[in-house]
Write a structure and sequence with these properties.
Low-confidence stretches of chain B: 9-25
Number of helices of chain A: 22
Low-confidence stretches of chain A: 745-755
CATH class of one domain in chain A: Alpha Beta
Strand order of the largest sheet of chain B: 1-2-3
Helix content of chain B: 25-40%
CATH architecture of one domain in chain A: 3-Layer(aba) Sandwich
Strand content of chain B: 25-35%
Oligomer: heterodimer
Amino acid sequence: MTNHWRDIKHADVILINGANPAEAHPVGFQWFVKAKLDPTKGPGSGGGAKIIHADPRYTRTSALADVYLRMRVGTDVAYFGGLIRHVLENNLFHADYVKYYTNASFIVKDGFDFKDGLFSGYNQANRSYDTSTWAYETEGDKLPGSSGSTQAAAKRDLTLQHPRSVFQLLKKHYSRYTPEVVSGITGIPVDQFQQVAKIVGEMGRPDKVMTIVYAVGLTHHTTGGQLIRSGAVLQLLLGNMGRPGGGMNAERGHANIQGNTDHAISWEILPGYLRIPAPGQKTLDEYVAASAPKKSDPNSWNFFGTNYLNFMVSLLKGWYGNAATKDNEFAFDFIPKPSTNSSWMSIYDQALKGKMEGVILSGMTATSIGPDSNQVLKALSNLKWLVVMDPLPTTSSEFWHAPGMDASKINTEVFMLPATHWIEKDGSFVNSGRWMQWKDQVIPPEGEARHDHWIMAELFDRVKTLYKQQGGKFPEPIMAMTLDYKDPKKPELDEIAKEINGKDLSTGKQMGSFANLKADGTTTAGDWIYTGSYTEDGNLSKRRNGIQDPTKNDPTGMGFYSTWAWSWPLNRRVMYNRASADLDGKPWDTKRPGIQWDGARWQGDVPDYPVTMNPKDPAAWLPFIMNGEGVGRLFSNSMLDGPIPEHYEPVEAPIPNPLHPNQSADPVAFLYDQAAGRPNRFGKADKYPYVATSYRLTEHEHYVTQHVPLLVGLQPQAFVEVPDELAKEKGIKNGVRVRVSGQARGRGTRHQASRRAQAHRERQARLPHRHSHPLGLRRHLG
Amino acid sequence: MTEITRREFLKLGAAGTAGMALVPLANPLGFDLAAAKKRAVDLRIAGAKEVHSVCPYCAVGCSLIAYTKEVNGKTQLLQIEGDPDSPVNEGRLCPKGATAMQLATSARRVDAPMYRAPGSANWEKKSWDFMLDKLAQNIKTARDNTFVAQDANGNIVNRTEGIAFAGGAAFSSEEGYFATKLMRSLGVVHIEQQARV
């Protein structure tokens, strides 16, 4: 989230796409309801915020919404695109914000084009874009700045009239998204779409603000990045990014998915969203040049790009201590460099090829995640060993005696290591709103259970001993890795939290801010975005000054509660908050201030800006300090699948894309079967004419709640929600058993188990296609 | 009668009988509901220790208060409820959070390390030392077998291709960071968690 849960109560309009917070995040949903019940919020003269829910399924969120839009699965870009067009064509955008706080005025190079569903630079053979034609037209020499982080200044036209200005390109691009076209793609009736467009259009007024909330219904698509970007473009046009009650807010689905994404349990990043280095990058300078954002305006701070090297060196210094020196590029060679996509599904593809020897699972099950469980079972059978660290048995630990498996033929050694539960250890969870909240150990470990990090520390210690005794391949990083804990085999989580924050090696003091990290090896930071969480004042995530005393703990009354826990970056509660105030530093809406300039300092939330920088100084930085442009990007050349979001059908969509039937799906979508050397297995509409979505019930959280008797008692049975029309067509009555199958989960898969048909709550979107029936499949049984 | 929050119960308790005496006056039925509720709460958590936690399920991040008591030298979990001080949940919990205690005390816990040998149809209970030694040797062998120091173009890549690590949406951030640091130091490139899928 750019904002946080409590902040949603400030919104006048709440757009919800690809999410069902009333059921999946019920306690967070109280803030939506607060906005709805607050007569000072809402469009026009108020009367309560309007909740607009666009989703293929009618859920409890829809029931509490002011407008429910039944939309066809995967068509959110068309919906947002239609709203963008409405805002642009009717001059409803926030004019000053768009002019000064976005890249609307930037001029794109001659040669950029979009035709028949393809942007310029497409290479059919390797299914990728050469993005050089998506660059800005520049003038003058490279801007001054740290190595690898600058380029020549982009040309701008503040009248926004230049035909190659981002503003005009955007207008042209979305001119195709008329209400009729949007309706034809999404299934939302034209009059209903126009009703919503009218409400949303009003949110470009500086005294109004809208938030967009989404979840995996947007992210889990081949076009996930663009689905989210289309919402962000709308928010930038309306001037809603950076403002309390605004922003783009992702609801995360697990207690610590945020924290452990930040800490880079992800193949393509290092902690703090630094990119994993690629083969061929021989030095840190080459790495930074290929990874850091490039400053493209003289007034852009480009804070991330400027400090990229400082962050990376501080990480390396933290990990490899004395072995990381200036002479060896701070042990840059110790970081592994992947050659290809090494994400989730490729783990099992490598196993199928016999290239993966062992898999370690910690609180995650392989077999219940992904499109083809049978294939994963086969992959696990092909491993030499599998480790499952979990408090409870999982479908992975038990895979070798699953139905249909012949244990005598499976040679995988399986290690079930009992791990402690969340309540048996301390440490922090980071919520969707980036709040790092410490939890204490409540009870001691059950039985012989051990903490995951103690298991890993013990293992690492034994591996290290083996390398010392037996020698082996490149032991240097293993020997050099710092273990500065009282007991290296039992590090305390508080010690690790301290390490993550980092310290000044010359004074031994904890760092107070990542702004002071250096590239000369005198500072450390395990994850720079958490620098400031554990200062000389201690572990700030333990702070508990909440609503027991609002006067003291929330002096602005805006709900920041800055001494409750800690939020990254730097305890800032609303990201990009410089954009919540106008050019002079006055809040766009004085009733809902983020930060404001008092003549000497920025007051309010922790400013996303230098605290004493006078906004009237001609040299003052532009508002978005993290990217190269210094402004919000309506057009982004850092996306691999297009600089402007475009509607593409899902890869397996049963109909061709109405906008460009010859380029129906995302032209650069990663095709896993193809990448693994197998023929693609896409479901075709003649065999699989229906679209299904999967979801969680309030009482369930993926698979773990199977172990909670009260919850299983509340929602005991698997069921399928079938639209009325489809049920009639197929003669399916409520309560009968039905069989659901798909291409990837074809005949004979475990997922083909019979399921019971449930109340016919679903209806088809109003389109004359059979495919618009969405089936609802709840997930719980794995 | 005005609804009384848990925090107010505690305050009432602290104020003693003078505070309690005010409640029945505001109650036209003459029945002291607040006092009865307070007594019920007292009975459940009397003499208990209050410990702070966070809900293990979705990422709203609801704060929890857990009540524990030492019984025969063992810490017993008595109750989990929403923390009324939290600006996120203000004491509220959904059905999952409200039943978190059943997850914490599940009878289905794996209570000792279990090993399944190649081709075997059974689990065997083993010691931690057995498991960790065997696994350490497996990790070293897999690393040595699949380590690529230089790619075909002569670039230094120092990667272990034959080990994957996945997980981390359910454990503490500091454990996640520690896992990343260890796995990258072993050269692992296949590192993934729930955010992707």
